[in-house]
Amino acid sequence: MTRFKATISYDGSDFAGFQEQPGRRTVQSEIEKVLQKLNSGKELKLWMAGRTDSGVHACGQVIHFDLEDPRPVERIRFALDTQTPADISIWKLEVVASDFHARFTPHEKIYEYLLDNSVSRSPFKRRSQAWFRYRLDLGLMQEAASKIVGTHDFEGFTAAGGSVKDKVRTISLATVEKIDESSFRFRFRGSGFLYKQVRNMVGTLIKIGNGKFPVDQIDKILSTGNRHFAGPTAHPEGLYLKEVIYNEDRK
Amino acid sequence: MTRFKATISYDGSDFAGFQEQPGRRTVQSEIEKVLQKLNSGKELKLWMAGRTDSGVHACGQVIHFDLEDPRPVERIRFALDTQTPADISIWKLEVVASDFHARFTPHEKIYEYLLDNSVSRSPFKRRSQAWFRYRLDLGLMQEAASKIVGTHDFEGFTAAGGSVKDKVRTISLATVEKIDESSFRFRFRGSGFLYKQVRNMVGTLIKIGNGKFPVDQIDKILSTGNRHFAGPTAHPEGLYLKEVIYNEDRK
Question: I need a labelling partner for B78 at 20 to 30 A (CA). Which of A120, B107, B119, B146 fits?
Answer without folding.
Answer: B107
